């Protein structure tokens, strides 16, 4: 039995074994029920008779289920053992879960919102959550593991077929839970190396200062800010076209007047750079009226350079 990953056949075999046993007994018990209904019908047995026990029958229906349950446990344990023992040569990728997005970070610091992996090479995913419990799930690979705040978890897989595979969150985590989607792109080894080299080469360019039309350097890179807004999952709650999702839109934010609730009191504030900084680092301090305080703090999650880049990007919308 083949599949999209080395785990697929392992999980499917155990599932089919258990399902097969369940189907067998479903048919057997249903048949016996119908058979006994006719065999021991009242019309055929006007006078009831006592039924005496059978030691052989008692032994059979005790020993056989015990053996079957032990077999289920054995195959399940062997599959679990295989899926928890990470190969020594596995490539490590850090996975950060937050409401409502996934971020993948490679060993050289490259960050993406889509997981790129080579086929026929084991990949270890180190999971962490920044807010609530999420569950990293790749249905095609038959792997799933919770990402728990404050508790590092992991899983591993080895893709055996090229293609695009869905990544879902299998733990209800709030209003946009169903939209917490991503992709695994399994590429041939050479194609993955080419992508990784190109993406790693582009990474410093995003960190480099921009050049203005006058030829001088801008203080920060708004392209880096746009990329960070996408990577950090901000677009799951905030649009850039004026539409409302979970939080206020980014469009026209900078320089506008906002009515906010702070310590239970309403007030108006100007959306200047200081306000944007406070909203990112301490989102619960001043909550825009009409919206709930759902945003996790980004304090300690962003460098000063990254924070400045995001602010620069927001100023341009």
Summarize the structure in words.
The chain is of the alpha+beta class. It folds into three domains: 6-45 and 53-84, no CATH class; 91-203, Sandwich (Immunoglobulin-like), CATH 2.60.40.420; 222-315, Cytochrome c-like domain (Cytochrome Bc1 Complex, Chain D, domain 2, Orthogonal Bundle). It contains six helices and 13 strands. It has a five-stranded mixed β-sheet with strand order 3-2-1-5-8, with no helix packed on it. Strands 4-10-9-6-7 form a five-stranded mixed β-sheet. A hairpin with a 2-residue loop joins strand 1 (91-98) and strand 2. Helix 1 (6-39) packs antiparallel against helix 2 and helix 4 packs across helix 6. The two termini are 52 Å apart.
Keywords for this structure?
single chain, 317 residues, 3 domains, 5-stranded mixed sheet, 13 strands, 21% strand
């Amino acid at each position: 039995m083949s599949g999209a990953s080395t785990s697929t056949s392992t999980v499917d075999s155990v599932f089919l074994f258990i399902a097969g046993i369940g189907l067998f007994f479903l048919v057997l018990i249903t048949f016996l029920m119908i058979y006994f209904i006719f065999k021991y019908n009242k019309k055929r047995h006007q006078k009831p008779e006592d039924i005496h026990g059978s030691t052989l029958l008692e032994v059979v229906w005790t020993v056989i289920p015990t053996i079957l349950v032990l077999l289920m446990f054995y195959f399940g344990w062997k599959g679990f053992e295989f899926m928890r023992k990470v190969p020594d040569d596995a490539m490590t990728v850090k996975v950060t879960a937050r409401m409502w997005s996934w971020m993948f970070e490679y060993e050289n610091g490259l960050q993406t919102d889509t997981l790129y992996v080579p086929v026929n090479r084991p990949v270890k995913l180190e999971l962490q959550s920044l807010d609530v419990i999420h569950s990293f799930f790749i249905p095609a690979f038959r792997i799933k593991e919770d990402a728990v705040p404050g508790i590092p978890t992991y899983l591993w897989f080895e893709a055996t077929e090229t293609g695009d595979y869905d990544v879902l969150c299998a733990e209800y985590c709030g209003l946009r839970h169903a939209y917490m989607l991503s992709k695994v792109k399994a590429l041939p080894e050479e194609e993955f190396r080419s992508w990784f080299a190109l993406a790693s080469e582009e990474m410093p360019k995003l960190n480099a200062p921009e050049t203005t039309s006058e030829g001088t350097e801008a203080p920060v890179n708004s392209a880096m800010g746009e990329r960070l807004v996408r990577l950090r999952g901000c677009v799951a709650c905030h649009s850039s076209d004026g539409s409302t999702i979970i939080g206020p839109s980014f469009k026209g934010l900078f320089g506008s007047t906002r009515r906010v609730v702070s310590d239970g009191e309403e007030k108006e504030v100007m959306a200047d750079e200081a306000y944007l900084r406070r909203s990112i680092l301490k989102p619960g301090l001043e909550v825009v009226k009409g919206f709930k305080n759902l945003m996790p703090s980004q304090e300690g999650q962003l460098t000063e350079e990254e924070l400045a880049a995001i602010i620069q990007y927001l100023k341009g919308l």
